[in-house]
Amino acid sequence: MNLPQDxxxxxxxxxxxxxxxxxxxxxxxxxxxxxxxxxxxxxETVGETIESGAVFGTVEAVKTVSDLFMPISGxxxxxxxxxxxxxxxxxxxxxxxxxxxxxxxTDKGDQLMSADEYRSITEG
Length: 124
Known about the structure:
The protein is of the alpha+beta class. It has one domain (8-119): CATH 2.40.50.100. It is 19% helix and 38% strand. The chain is built from four helices and nine strands. The protein has helices at 29-35, 82-85, 89-92, 115-123, and strands at residues 8-9, 14-19, 22-27, 38-42, 49-50, 55-61, 65-69, 73-79, 101-107. The strands form two sheets. The protein has a six-stranded antiparallel sheet. Strands 4-6-7 form a three-stranded antiparallel sheet, with no helix packed on it. Strand 1 and strand 2 form a beta hairpin. The longest helix is centred in the C-terminal third of the chain and has 9 residues, at 115-123. The radius of gyration is 13 Å and the shape is globular.
C-alpha cells in the first residue's frame, strides 16, 4: 500500500496535504483499492464551508457509492474538474492527479494521523 509520509490521513480514508492555509484532499490508495473501479465523483459543495467529519461529496464505484468526509474544517475552494471526464484518475494516481478538492483551512482539528498511524488501522 502506497502511503506518502508527507501527507496526513483520517480514519475515513481521506488524505490531506496542507500548504499554508490551503489543503488538498483526496482518498487513499487503500480506499480506492477497496472501492474498485471508480466511475463517478459528485462534489457540489464548492464555495461552502464544511465542518470536519461532515460529508462533502460522494464517489461511485462499479459496485458501491461511498460518502466523502471532510478531514478538516474549511471552505471548499476548488473541485478537480479532471475527475468529471476521467474519474479513474483516483484509481491510477490517488495522491497526484486524482486529488478531489482544495480547501481554505479554518480548523485542522485533532483527527489527522501520520502515515504510520494510518497504516496501523488499515493493517490492524
